[in-house]
Specification:
The complex is a heterodimer. In chain A, about 40% of the residues are buried. Chain A is mostly beta strands. The termini of chain A are far apart. Chain A is built from no helices and 11 strands. The mean pLDDT of chain A is about 100. Chain A is globular, with a radius of gyration of 13 Å. In chain A, the strands form 2 sheets. In chain A, strands 2, 4, 5, 6, 9, 10 and 11 form a 7-stranded mixed beta sheet that branches. A 4-stranded antiparallel beta sheet of chain A has the order 1-3-8-7, with no helix packed on it. Chain B is mainly β. Helix content of chain B is about 0%, strand content about 60%. Chain B contains no helices and 11 strands. In chain B, strands 2, 4, 5, 6, 9, 10 and 11 form a 7-stranded mixed beta sheet that branches. A 4-stranded antiparallel beta sheet of chain B has the order 1-3-8-7, with no helix packed on it. Chain B is globular, with a radius of gyration of 14 Å. The model of chain B has no long low-confidence stretch (mean pLDDT about 95).
Chain lengths: ~110, ~120
């Protein structure tokens, strides 16, 4: 299975800060990398797919980049409602796998 | 906009069979793969398996011997059965739709729609 390692595991930042979350794959996965956000008690919600394509309806405050094994999720200006856990997920090969999550606190 | 609604028994005893169903409200099962994903404190998010409306399935090898995913296209529903459950199967179970996008580098899938989640607890 492809392993995804996210860093940091958690972070605390202020409103307005620029925040980055990293995701490293155990092998080359091209652009087959998606990002999700999960708020407490809710299902994960798709933010970005194919490494950098913003899902319809998602704030342009979010962006993704990367190719191969190293990927980044960026929140340009952190908002109070961005407090959540963020997960990366690879869809390059079965079984599809997820990172362990990064908890973002305001 | 399709909404996924899921239901099933939330409390099981060891060795029993977990059974969950997911319905696509406001849409059909046509043209997508439909997945089950679970989330536990110990293992995080874990993909269980998926099914296409044609009946083609793919399962996580770690669970393959115990999992069956089926589909009822007449009702726009798909279901999960997991046999011989243990405490390790305690988790929140989600159904999800897998969409995809065609790019130069390939067809890239992603989970764009999720059910509300069903907490399942296995305890004697």
């Amino acid at each position: 299975d492809i392993q995804l390692t996210q860093s940091p595991s958690s972070l605390s930042a202020f409103v307005g800060d620029r925040v980055t979350v990293a995701c490293r794959a155990s092998q080359n996965i091209g652009l087959f990398l998606n990002w999700y956000r999960q708020e407490p008690g809710k299902a994960p919600k798709l933010l970005i797919y194919a490494a950098s394509t913003l899902q319809s309806g998602v704030s342009s405050n979010f962006s993704g980049s990367g190719l191969g094994t190293d990927f980044t999720l960026t929140i340009t200006s952190l908002q109070p409602e961005d407090s959540a856990i963020y997960y990366c997920q690879q869809s390059y090969t079965s079984p599809q796998t997820f990172g362990q999550g990064t908890k973002v606190e305001i | 906009q399709v909404q996924l609604y899921q239901w099933g028994a939330g409390l099981l005893k060891p060795s029993e069979t977990l059974s969950l169903t997911c319905s696509a409200h406001g849409g059909t099962l046509f043209g997508y793969y439909w997945s089950w994903i679970r989330q536990s404190p110990g293992k995080g998010l874990e993909w269980i398996g998926e099914i296409h409306r044609s009946g083609v399935t793919d399962y996580n090898p770690s669970l393959k011997s115990r999992v069956t995913i089926s589909i009822d296209t007449s009702k726009d529903q798909f279901s999960l059965k997991l046999t011989s459950v243990t405490a390790a199967d305690t988790a929140i179970y989600y159904c999800a739709r897998k969409a995809d996008i065609s790019m130069i580098r390939g067809v890239i899938p992603y989970f764009d729609n999720w059910g509300q989640g069903t907490p399942v607890s296995v305890s004697s």
